[in-house]
Amino acid sequence: MTDPKLALSTRAVHVPAADPVGGRPLSVPIYQTSVFAHDDAKTITDALNDPRGDFAYSRLGNPTVRALEHAMAELEGAAGAVATASGMGAIAVALGAQLRAGSHLVVQRSIYGGTTGLLDDLVARWGLSTTEVDGDDPAALRAALRPNTVAVYLETISNPMTVVADLPAMCAVAREAGVLTVVDSTFASPMVCRPLELGADIVVHSATKYLSGHSDVTGGITAYADEKHFRAGWAYAATTGVTPDPFATWLIIRGLQTLGLRMRQANSNAVALAETLAAHPAVDRVHHPSRPDHPQHELARRILDGYGAMLSFDLAAGEHAARAFTASVRLIQQAASLGGVETLTVHPSSTSHRSFSDEALAAAGISRGTVRLSVGIEDPADLVADLTQALEQC
């Protein structure tokens, strides 16, 4: 209780926070505060320097944010995790804390266009160099390594062509050379793959996607296999200010609680849609790890818990047909994102990979007739019906 002798205007400023007594909150509370008060300066100093210490300033640590970080560290089997305000923020933290001017990166061929854009910017600004290799070719990785190679960057399931990286083999080559492996596992989520268990050093997620799962928040997560890299990532995130606000984090936590249920249904739906697409004459090829003709089908069976809910397909009639399809869906919606409860479609060459030349698209395996689907949790019969009527327009 504030001192009743104080002026009303002063008492209005100093509203006391209730202590969490009398029961344990079942939901993680939202600590919507930017700063925390303490009774001595040393406690504040320690909090400003320790990612596991008390709280002083929410850019460096917040109880709601830390709850998400702890949850993701447990799901990934990590020493620690750092939450960020977006998936690109997570990638920037994972790489930025490790790179120096003149560093060399080995990058999986055919990855998210936003990551490619970030790497192009870093190459121009920092004098970095990159070498592309296939994500399932450890011999090519070994040949690409240089004395100044800092990291290998892979995607568990690539965007948009669903290439499955051979994480055990690629991570083993990198580790033998003393090089870090960074894996974007957004398309998989921890329910489908846990890269740290397969030898990776750092795993990143766009929490905007499957982790939150409801298309209502942006966020990211970077999880680390060891304490040293975790602390370096936390310091880089705090310094650059890419950490998230408590309310956004709370939304991600709420979504995380249904991740297992959502991924199970979405994975099952994706297999059904892949079968429908493969049987349709308008479709030239379906890209989903569940398909026996997928290049990494056997690898996916070995290292994934399911095949993921992302798929793409090539329409035989090319770009015109792809645009006709995306314009003709009714239940499925056009949107440049993924991982929500609703099924979404997008035309990669004009959206996520719009900056790619024809040569770069071809190198990534993307055609102008490629369409991407993020499969949601709707009734599969409704999705098949919408898919079929849209394909008739192609």
From TrEMBL:
It catalyses: L-homocysteine + H2O = 2-oxobutanoate + hydrogen sulfide + NH4(+) + H(+); L-methionine + H2O = methanethiol + 2-oxobutanoate + NH4(+). It comes from the Bacteria. GO terms for cellular component: cytoplasm. Its EC number is 4.4.1.2. The modification N6-(pyridoxal phosphate)lysine is found at residue 209. One of its GO terms (molecular function) is pyridoxal phosphate binding. GO terms for biological process: cysteine biosynthetic process via cystathionine; transsulfuration. The keyword Nucleotide-binding does not apply. Keywords: Pyridoxal phosphate, Transferase. The keyword Membrane does not apply. Gene3D superfamilies: Aspartate Aminotransferase, domain 1, Type I PLP-dependent aspartate aminotransferase-like (Major domain). Its cofactor is pyridoxal 5'-phosphate. It is an enzyme of class 4 (lyase). InterPro entries: Cys/Met-Metab_PyrdxlP-dep_enz, Cys_met_metab_PP, PyrdxlP-dep_Trfase, PyrdxlP-dep_Trfase_major, PyrdxlP-dep_Trfase_small. Belongs to the trans-sulfuration enzymes family. This is homocysteine desulfhydrase. It comes from Nakamurella flavida.
